[in-house]
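To: structure subgroup
Subject: Chain for Friday's discussion

All,

I'm putting the inputs and outputs inline so they're searchable in the archive.
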Amino acid sequence: LIGDLFPGLDCPRVGYPKFNDAVEGAFTEHGFVVLPDQVDKVIRLYETMLTRHTTMVVGPTGGGKSAVIDTLCRAQTKLSIPTKLYTMNPEAVTVVELYGI
């Protein structure tokens, strides 16, 4: 995102060595091939969740949305960060119930 806003700016990524290891371990334990792009997607979602209280993951069918979300939960759990995932149908609740407006 920073590269899109400021072309030519060299902005090094923050490293999370323990978290990266946990993500790779979670992928491996569930039979996925560890791909750097998928690990990066999990890291980006993790960073987003650090700064936001809600997040929507969108993308094409087969793009790895569920794998990324599930892997984030498993990696955090491996690092003793209790994580619960609740999947819900947004059409089954009112806007007030969904967003707390």
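Points worth raising on Friday:
DSSP finds five helices and no strands in the chain.
The radius of gyration is 16 Å.

D.
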